[in-house]
Amino acid sequence: MTRVHDSHAIDGKIAPPDEMFDVVVIGAGSAGLAAALTAARAGRQVTLIDEHPVAPALIGSDVPLWFGGRASAAVQAPERLIETLVETEPLIAEAFEAGIDVRLGTTAWGLWRNRDGSAALPAAMLGLAAEGRSSTAGFGTLILATGARDCALHFAGWDQPGVMGALAFQTLVLRYQAFAGRRVVVLGSGDLALETAAVAREAGIEVAALIEVRDAVQGELAVSTGVPVLTARAGVRAEGGLDGVERVIVVAPDGAETVIACDSVIMAIDSVPAIELAEVGGAGVTTVTRRGGVVIAADGPQVLPGVWLAGAAAGHCPTRVAALADGAAVASAALGQGGVVPPVEGGFDRMAYRADWLRALVAHSPDTTPVCQCEEVSRADLIGVQPPGYLPRPEPMQARSLETLLHDGPPDAEQVKRLTRAGMGLCQGRRCREQISLLLAMAANLPPQAAPRGNWRVPVRPLPLGVMADWDHAARMDAGWDVWFGIDTQWIPYQDIGTEAEQRHLSELGGNMHL
Amino acid sequence: MSTHYDVIVIGAGVTGLSSAWWLARDGLRVLVLDKGVVGAEASSRNGGGASHYQSPLFAEEQRLWPMMDDLLGYPTEHRAERIIISTDRHEFDHYNYIGDMCVAMGWPVDKIDGDTARAMVPIAGDNCLGGIHLRFGGHANPQRTVQAYAWALQDLGGRIIQHCPVSAIETTGGDVSAVVTPRGRFSCGALVVAAGPQIAGLLAPIGIEVPLMAGRAEMIVTEPAPLMALGGVDGNGLYGRQTLRGNLAFGGGPHEWIDTDPAGPRARPTTPLSRSLARRVAELFPRAAHLNVIRSWAGIVENTPDGRPILDRLGNLVIATMSGVGFGLSPATGHAVRDLVVDGTCSFADIAKLNLARFAGIDPGWRASAGWLPLEA
User: Fold this and answer.
1) Highest mean pLDDT of the ranges A73-82, A259-268, A499-508
2) What pLDDT was estimated at residue B106?
3) Fewer CB within 10 Å, N- or C-terminus of chain A?
4) Is residue B296 a contact partner of residue B220, using CB atoms and an 8 Å limit?
């Protein structure tokens, strides 16, 4: 029997990908470069995509890293930055020489696949954007080497220029050569913090102090000589002026305060695996505290059919050497040329460490401190599940809180997000989702591994309407386009049902009568 | 173990919760059961529109919306009125016909030219031909509203149990006597089934066939734009709203028919359709084309063969599906369901044509005949 066609349905309307890649690697960090080079040397056609240099507007919005308003004017000239990126990463030149199609300044913002709930796609495809246009790309093998992003925790004064993430700092210093600060205080003393201090020192940036809430230095790397480490501190706050941070006040357990002059505070307590693309592509997620929180649930590096995950995006490979090795190994496995060596799981409980820091920061900041900067949601309103300031708070509303919600079931990050708007802003929750998750877990007396998770949605980077827009396939998609389901009888005024007027409306309007 | 309630409602969506709230206002002991959490499905994933002139419930909806914040005790973000603007002549004429139809029904509509439209909708462009200004209807925040119903119900002593799917409905002498769940058996004096796409699967075992087909629909949302005086703006094949925060949230375009699972949708994926939505929003609002899209999402919606609700009482069972147009009408739907449960008939409107019997004897192959079939995986 011939299938009847519903002209308003999506059947056949999603265009095939604009281009097809044999092997495509997202992320030109260590793991991605190693993966791309391995695949190219195995004779494959390889495309390597990296979003850096990121558009200045995104840097200002703390996407994809927490740049904290400390990028110099150099980021205003992306074409110059491309040269800098190539100069500062020798493997990029190697990739060009190996015949790899290297696309810098190109954002991978979507990954769509047919799966439960949809079979509308002619092929799995990536959403890409470069130079103000977006496009789609299919692939034979997709290796996601998207690295990590910054983990932000709030404290008094964190919502001002100069407070930033360790990965943003390292990117600005090492890859962009565009860091605008001179004297920094580093929060944390794990390997990420120790590495960050070393990067600063190497670049001639003064490190005023490393601050640690635990009793001892947490990392295994050496502490850069001459960098003071203040351990067993109870809390911190930052103060400053129009240009942002001018000093950090460190509080000792006995309440004594130490004032440290600086222009930047680098939060180097932890980083977070950048799982966005894998998650929106349909991969399951799980929380593994030793791998930095929410990671893709998979038995190995293959996380979806034809999709592989390499390097820090998987929640391991803290060093460049490890990331290079993992990228190469994952590419070999993806091409069927080698088994995967299971990465060694780190022994450090990252979420417990984060939680220790968060408890200290919460104890020394007023509950009016914003947790979500984009939507200006305070910690009190987050835990009180109160609506934003432009809505009224009648008495019943004020009587509600996370505690009353917990009577209905376990905390739900998406529900709290919708009610408070925390995490709903332009940075797509990059500066708040980890801390919201931990704050909700703490309030519900749940361990960090049971912290409620928010999810990622396409586009995984903010993308202007005019850029995301598909200007090329309008005719295909417009055929049968209807506001709603195109069911013509749905919109007939009730009193006209079964009358002559119904027939007149149907012939005049068809289905599209939605208001 | 059996716990008795005057009324059990299956489905903590906007229809089920409004119904439960109305019933609790009558002093009845009400229990709402949901397979998941409050408002997790289409009830919180829609455009928030409240302008459904075609419905017999619409006048009551219009009467109630301005009072809902006070009645519920929680903010719904309700705003009155809408504008529909057009960028092509065919659509302009189309909406003018609808405007005339609304005027004939007693709902005031102003026809506006391009300049007036641009003054009201500053992000519209030179391509705007004008449109219709509905001096009725409106929009509200679906997520806040569904939670407001839930909280207001609890404030009246109603009970909601989440993560509690109903596995069986028990009948005695033709009437519903109890429902079975993993949390035990709950007996009831009356049952309201407002479980969206899951209604058919719940009722088939007791011999009631409800013809429904589920579809997946997509939306996108941008970062905030400067607040417009009137946030309910449609056109160019889109429905949506500017939230009070300023975000533009819009949907429209092709749906995908999907199979339903008794446990509910396993996933709600989006597709590159979001790029076509972005194009249409940029065409409708050229002066907002620079705004960043920050999220997209999909919702699963149930539809009846004629797209009209089923609001009907069979014995002590009330079936309530709004066929994909449930959010805006919800204040009145709950009232109608309350009336059906308590009085046996709707007190404020004739809803006889929304009965289930209109589908009696429907061809079992109706989905295939309409082309409402899932795609081959």
Assistant:
1) A259-268
2) 96
3) N
4) yes
Name the B residues in 84-143 with CB < 8 Å from any A CB.
84, 94, 97-98, 101, 105, 134, 137, 143
- Residue A94 pairs in a beta bridge with none
Minimum-distance CB partner of A387 among B144, B276, B282? B144
Q: Is the pLDDT of residue B2 over 60?
A: no
Distance from CA of A301 to the nearest CA of B (A): 23
How distant is the Cα of B370 from the closest Cα of chain A, in angstroms? Answer: 7
Dist CA B61 CA A102 (whole Å): 57
> Can you tell me the mean pLDDT for A266-294?
96
What pLDDT was estimated at residue A3? 80
3-state secondary structure A403-467: HHHHCCCCCCHHHHHHHHCCCCCCCCCCCCHHHHHHHHHHHCCCCHHHCCCCCCCCCCCCEEHHH
Segment A504-514 mean pLDDT? 76
Tell me whether A232 touches chain B (CB under 8 Å): no
Residue A392, min C-alpha distance to chain B (Å): 6
| Residue B1: per-residue pLDDT | 46
B53 and A493 within 8 Å at the Cβ level: the answer is yes
The whole-number pLDDT of residue B326 equals: 95
| Pick from A474, A389, A397, A463: nearest CA to A428 | A463
Selecting from A117, A408, A418 the residue whose C-beta is nearest the C-beta of B162 gives A408
Q: pLDDT digits over B147-194, tens only? A: 999 999 999 999 999 999 999 999 999 999 999 999 999 999 999 999
Name the band, by pLDDT with cuts 50, 70 and 90, for residue A344: low
What is the rounded average pLDDT of the residues B295-324? 97
ipTM of the complex: 0.97
Q: Please, which residues 173-212 of chain B have a Cβ atom closer than 8 Å to chain A?
A: none
Interface of A with B in 444-483 (CB under 8 A): 457-459, 462-466, 468-471, 473-474, 477, 480-483
Alpha-carbon distance values, B72 to A342, A397, B26, B232 (Å): 55, 10, 14, 22
Please judge whether A426 and B53 are an interchain contact, meaning their C-beta atoms are less than 8 angstroms apart: no
Judged against a pLDDT cut of 80, whether residue A117 lies above it is answered with yes
Between CA A5 and CA A369 the distance in angstroms is 55
B180-193 confidence digits (pLDDT tens) = 999 999 999 999 99
User: Rounded distance, CA B209 to CA A124, Å?
Assistant: 37
- For the stretch B46-59, what's the b/e string if a residue is b when 16 or more beta carbons lie within 10 angstroms of its beta carbon? bbbbbbbbbbbbbb
**Is this model's pTM higher than 0.95 or not?**
yes
Per-residue CA distances from A136 to A16, A307, A473, A474, B250 (Å) = 8, 16, 12, 15, 22
Nearest CA in chain A to B237: A483
Q: Quick check: A347 contacting B, CB < 8 Å?
A: no
**Residues paired with residue B133 on neighbouring β-strands, in sequence order:** B83, B110
What six digits make up the tokens of B118?
């641009």
pLDDT of A515 strictly over 60? no
- Whether residue B252 and residue A484 make contact (CB cut-off 8 A), yes or no, is yes
Helices assigned H by DSSP within B105-233: 114-120, 142-155, 199-203
Handedness of CA A502, A505, A511, A513 (dihedral sign): negative
Instruction: Tell me, rounded to whole angstroms, the distance of Cα A490 from its chain centroid.
Output: 41
Nearest CB to B257; choose among A9, A134, A412: A9
What is d(CA B25, CA A144) in angstroms, rounded to the nearest whole number? 54
Q: Between chains, do A482 and B272 touch, taking CB under 8 Å as contact?
A: no
Stretch A105-128: mean pLDDT: 97
User: Contact, A237 vs A219, CB < 8 A?
Assistant: no
Please report residues of B whose CB lies closer than 8 A to that of A505.
101
- Contact between residue B26 and residue B210 where contact means Cβ atoms under 8 Å apart: no
Smallest Cβ–Cβ distance between A9 and the set B239, B278, B371 belongs to B371
- Look at residue A78 and tell me whether its pLDDT is greater than 90: no
Nearest CA in chain A to B268: A117
